[in-house]
Amino acid sequence: MNRTNKLECIEKNAVVNGIRLTYFERGMAFRGVKPTLLFVHATGFHARVWDKIINALGNFHSISVDQRGHGRSEKKKILHWNEVITDTSEMIEQLDLTNIIAIGHSMGAHALIGAAPKAEHRFLQIIAIDPVIPEEAAFLDDTPSPFNGAEEHPTAKRRNEFDSPEEMADRLKPKGSFGLFDPEMLMDYCRHGLLPNEKGKGYVLACPPGIEASVYMSSRSNHDIYDSVRSLSLPVLILRAKEPAKDRNAMDFSSSPTWPKLASEFSNGREIHFADKTHFLPMEIPEEITRIIAQEIASGQEALNASKI
Hints:
Order of helices and strands: EEEHEHEHEEHHEEHHEEHH
CATH class: Alpha Beta
Number of helices: 9
Mean pLDDT: 92
Oligomer: single chain
Number of domains: 1
Distance between the termini: 34 Å
């Protein structure tokens, strides 16, 4: 993967939906000339996890966002997934983004699908990587949570302090799907996923464990996402990971949380199914994800050029 065309990455902030969000912008010179690439990350990650993919794509205007509670953004728990949808929608409006090819992973993909109907004219396409949209009936399931609040969720008990990004990476490699991560992606996750520890030495997680737990505890809060799915006419490409095993542990996040028939619910939906890959597709197979994005950009550029004739 060629990283010789790295564009300057500029850290910026915006106040939207009553919260300060950090975002990273590259390639301003290409804004309006080529599609704008908008990247939104998954739960527990951050904007800079996309660096390898963004750099490999070359000369484009791009925005990658730290969602609320994550990365360098303001630390607030997520109590309803409509919050991240509104954050995304208001960010797009405030930055006046147009000709968007939106790339989202997990909760980030869910946020983009939810935000797009309010400003569909600003989008060319959405590439939704395992967008955490289960079968519609799952949103209506009133089975009580086994956890009495976010503070009891297992992710709330994650280790929060590390001496260095390298130590964090070494500890994660043997755990879960982290051992499958591309080494560069794993180090970007650790390097930018830590903040200086204001109460002592070393670093703390940029997404505090309590905030990550709040995301999982509210993951079935947004039944309205199906209204968004069915209202969109723009092209939506779903990238879906392996299906969960019948005896899956509830804390195993390696399989797909996305309904296998979701693509057919969009009026202009398609799917690529990676039957043997984990939910962490961008980190596990970044070259393949980059190739797919590049193909979709080429199609988006054709549509953009045609609109100018």
